[in-house]
């Protein structure tokens, strides 16, 4: 049942052209395929094997003559001529009963598709694998007003439309949309002089919420030309917003399909964070046109080839458009919060996995986010020029091909001459490397001894050291930088380096800009961390110094019952008040590590995290910060007010972030007076939620929540926020009971993935509530995953990751989590998706 990387073999045939014709009907859509094929000279001869699932075959022909293929549960087999031939077949499918949202399905009356990774086989019989690339033509017959597919528009008329995609593509990039849609349109002229029609298609009524996504799209197109020399290659670029979608969005050639929440925005309905996510996802999907579509993956083991690179590119883009410092800190928080957590548990897997049962389970933080870190490290190792040369070579050499990580690394070796054998280990070894750094400062010389090791992960015990780029510098205690950023390569353990820095009165700043996805153990006194927080020229490490102080303070409170650390509070104040620092950066400095982050930190230090104690420590430290910093926070709250019309760009968003961060603390002191005033006066969703969330946290939001519901009950994306925030931000361990109540709410439409995540997923976001000692959090999640699995296996399987941290906790909680996993695993007809996830968690 498992697929292995080492089993790769090319497909028996070459597909020369695909023509598809759709007669769209809700419960009986007919799909007719005409596919030109010939034997693949590079493959072993054999019968024609096509993937197909849930299809009713009406007829099949080869070169016009009826054939009778052998059908089974996963496809068909038929003898084919040893020469070029035309395969034709007609199948019937039922989009109306497709609740898995994979293949062709219906969302709010709109036909749409999701084919990555293996959904095309639910549309017609086909070699559904990414290394089979072909040009497609499509005809859609339907009375619906808007009929879309990939490529350029062809003929259209009453009840039909034709589409032509000249660029060979794998089936996972196929898309079709049909519905009653309206467009927000614009144009873009490429650097090559191509005039491209841009359309964002939405349901009537949503057309006023597309301007920001369109703006982000045009900026993405210009950026990819400017930074990577990549221009768009079709006459139209269509984006469609869909309400029912398992993931964020999908890069189908010329027809990107998005979860509506990552397209639609207006100041009244979307927060600054929503705007930022829309910008980055629009960019991500657009950038896939070159890194993913024109150059795709040979097989699904190479998923990081397109995802890691495209995430890296969208992070670069957002950094360029906003702030590199703020972007990097956010990316690292996300990496640590999701990927380090994954890497430390039973679901740990390499960036390029060696085997899988269900590929949809590998669209993970490791493949995406750690995959992106590998690109950043490569760039650090070969330099900016080397990176640019390698990328040019990649596009020149591999355009139109389905590639591997070996191809990717070869362009770096060929373009720069650098041997990447040791670097390549990053792709095949799971686990977050740990760097233990000893440092000494004598006679003006800074000496570092770095020990590196990778912890064991499921199925991987003995690991070799990959080369690790470590950026470092040093800051004198008087604030001067005495060692500018230098990148050293840790390629053996231990690695020793020394630098003449001319003073003994300095502090090393190690792993600047988080130059590698590792855990750093570096012993620094509190006072030395305060020096870095005050003076580090590297914004990431400046922030990190504050974070380490906060973690030390929280750890002492949790484990020794210590009081909140006055030195931490004293070190924070000047940074918060420093007018030369970007408000968005200061907002990040003001934020405390999450409960889950603290639980992971304690577990890594060999302790058993107590969720209630962590929540209490965080609450107490937050309260102490509010008391101690009250005047600074009040000045920020008053001073960071934004005047004039709402602008989602970084400058104003940063001010709102800092102001609302200040409000969150002040609300702990004023009983919610300021927050209630802000909630009443807010004219944008950022300020509205900036007030509502702190009110929820102090248990004083009943009235505000009721009014919020009345205002937004007909707006599905805002209603998702109403559901999720009252659970995720619930104080104490109340989240479990609130979620249990909200699943009874008439607006809880559990078959809609966004709504399901807003309730069940939100409970998982509330650490103390999910881990409530009576097991009610675990039980509720398990009940609902059992219910969702037969309806939507992908979304259910993904959410089982809430249990991946089981091993961190005490025996009672571990037992309750195991009970929940056992119960899921015993559900009748458990999907392959959820079965694989739960199996790995029970074994690991
Ligand atoms: N390729 C898409 C993206 O990264 C994600 C689609 C994943 N879908 C899935 N069912 N696994 O933008
Ligand atoms: Zn992607």
Question: Outline of this structure?
Answer:
The chain is an alpha+beta fold and 844 residues long.
Provide a descriptive summary of the structure in words.
The protein is an alpha+beta fold. It is 42% helix and 22% strand. It is built from 26 helices and 31 strands. It has an eight-stranded mixed beta sheet with strand order 6-5-9-3-2-12-15-14, with no helix packed on it. The protein has a five-stranded mixed beta sheet with strand order 17-18-19-21-20, with helices on one face. Strands 29-26-25-31 form a four-stranded mixed beta sheet, with no helix packed on it. Strand 27 and strand 28 form a beta hairpin. Helix 2 (272-287) crosses helix 3, helix 3 (303-321) crosses helix 5 and helix 25 runs antiparallel to helix 26. The two termini are 19 Å apart. Bound molecules: arginine (ARG) and zinc ion. Residues 284, 288, 307, 310 line the site of zinc ion.
Largest sheet: 8 strands, mixed
Radius of gyration: 27 Å
The average pLDDT is 98
Catalogue the unreliable spans. none
Summing up helix and strand content along with how strands pair, one would put the structural category as: alpha+beta
Number of beta strands: 31
The ligands bound in this entry are: arginine, zinc ion
Distance between the termini: 19 Å
Strand content: 15-25%
The geometry reads as: globular
Give the neighbour order of strands across the main sheet.
6-5-9-3-2-12-15-14
Instruction: Indicate the percent of residues in helices.
Output: 40-55%
Number of helices: 26
